[in-house]
Amino acid sequence: MYIVHSTFAVPDDKAEEVISIYHSRSGLVDEADGFQRFLLLQNEKKPGEITVHMEWDTKEHFMTWVQSEDYKRIHELEKKYPDKDLASIIPSIDKYKVVAY
């Protein structure tokens, strides 16, 4: 299993707005080969810290997704988000290979 975390910080007063965006996400990734699960995590002590958690069968499945047209289309939409503060956020990406269950 391969896990990817994309963590970003938004102003605390915008956290609920960002969460609502993810509630209505396209779901395109759900159809990607090797995709297992998506979770949106909110830090309990820092409400503006949001992490996208994705689980994949393998690193290769994730890399195929990142190179796909669906991935590019989703991330182009993010750049066009009307709230410029949110559109300009650059996440921190962490990748993990699961080595034990």
UniProtKB/TrEMBL annotation:
Record's keyword terms, sorted: Monooxygenase, Oxidoreductase
Organism: Rossellomorea aquimaris
Coiled-coil intervals, chain numbering: none
Molecular function (Gene Ontology), one example: monooxygenase activity
Record's protein name: Antibiotic biosynthesis monooxygenase
Residue ranges of every copy of the ABM domain listed in the record: 2-90
The keyword Metal-binding is assigned to this record: no
Keyword Magnesium: no
InterPro entries: ABM_dom (IPR007138), Dimeric_a/b-barrel (IPR011008), Heme-degrading_MO (IPR050404)
